[in-house]
Amino acid sequence: MTQPFGYFVHHQGRGHAERCAAIANALPVTRPLTIFCARDDIFPALPAHVEIVRIPSLFEPGGGEATTMDDIATPATLHCAPLGWPGIRRAMATIAKWFDSANPALMICDVSAEIAQLARICSVPHVKVLQHGDRGDPGHRAAYDGAAGLLAAFHADLAQPEWDAAMRAKTCFAGGLGVDICVPERELARRRIGIGADEEMILVLSGGGGDGFGQAPLAVGARARPGTRWITIGPVQRDWHATEPANIEHRGWVDNAAEYVAAADLVIASTGNTTCQQILAAARPWLAIPEWRYFDEQHRKAEALAAAGVACARPHLPSSADAWEQALAETRATHRPDAQRGMIADTPAHDTAMWLEALATRLWTLAPAATLPLDLTGA
Fold it and tell me: What Rg, from alpha-carbon coordinates, does the chain have?
């Protein structure tokens, strides 16, 4: 039987589950895949050779946690490893037991430095998903250095400058992984979401990993552009002091975010992975506003996007009408649609699956036996 792959999926946001499903559907049907995740309801459709094993969350208390050991310092090689948490113990035991019984060819970690190191300790080769951020700490370095390969769900031109040649050499860059890169036609998308063909529309998009943008700064922006229709999708943080004009509308969660992106004249969005890939594929003028994430992930990604010339970035939403006008004007003036489209691979899921298959084959193929030199001396 073909050795299975394992896959740990972090359950915050949607991007982790979406790229996992994309890979799962691109892998050969002969390659069993076992997914470990704290939720089993966040995945798109999965093929028959995939199973999901629910494990407790590694960072959300489930009851029964000890509170008497929080004064013991966490070593620099770990990030989230509180003592006395039965859920963490059970999750790690479930994965370690599977390592022993399944003899996996690879364990893909998206994302947890602790799970990556568990795989290495258990003598299982792992692939660590590479994310943006200030991740030069010993915990991340141990996970990256000990990995058989690294997987980056973005184009190589978005790599951070401090990632050295050794890291890049073992990285599979897959721009567009986990996102439907078939962009809806603009006029059809507008009809479907109820936007007039000649209306100027600014879309504000917040992903599922946080609380969204503040209502007050968006109201300032909408008042600065009274002839433009502003639509938000995703969460918005309500501000009691926000004085919203009539040209801004909050539609909340939608199932067709790609149509909104395709319909927009300009997009204001944070820099979560799925959001990035959707906007780049649609090649829309983009004002990138990073949200708070661990290790400044979205801030470093916004820097990379701006450096590659595929987004205009600001550290936060503009706070005055003048600042809004400047940011929107710069976004339009620096728009490079061809460069944006170039960030998306034609077949990212297939390319990733073939890279994983080739890596597993290389790791588990026995080297040919050494040939002893002939002794022609007669001795």
Answer: 23
β partners of residue 286: 267
Cα angle, residue 304 at apex, residues 44 and 17 outer, rounded to 5°? 10
5-14, 162-171, 214-223, 279-288: least confident range: 5-14
Q: Which residues pair with 367 in a beta bridge?
A: none
pLDDT digits (tens, 9 = 90+) for 87-125: 999 999 999 999 999 999 999 999 999 999 999 999 999
Give dist(CA 269, CA 277) in Å, integer: 12
In terms of C-beta density within 10 A (0-12 exposed, 13-18 middle, 19 or more buried), how is residue 316 classed?
exposed
CA distances from 45 to 21, 51, 77, 161 (A): 7, 12, 36, 36
3-state DSSP assignment of residue 285: coil
Residue 12: both structure tokens together: 């915050």
8 A C-beta contact, residue 136 and residue 35: no
Mean pLDDT confidence for 37-52:
96
Provide the whole-model pTM.
Answer: 0.92
Distance CA 233, CA 205 (A): 5
Neighbour tally for 239: CB within 10 Å? 14
Query: Environment class of residue 281 by beta-carbon count within 10 Å: exposed (0-12), middle (13-18) or buried (19+)?
Result: buried
Give the DSSP letter string of 46-110. --TTEEEEE---SSS--S----S-TTSPPPTT-SS--TT-HHHHHHHHHHHHHHHHH--SEEEEE
Give the chain's mean pLDDT.
94
Here the tokens at position 70 are 């929080």
Q: Which residue has the tokens 């799962």?
A: 24
Write out pLDDT tens, residues 221-274. Answer: 999 999 999 999 999 999 989 999 999 999 999 999 999 999 999 999 999 988
Percentage of the chain surpassing pLDDT 70? 96
The three-state secondary structure class of 160 is: coil
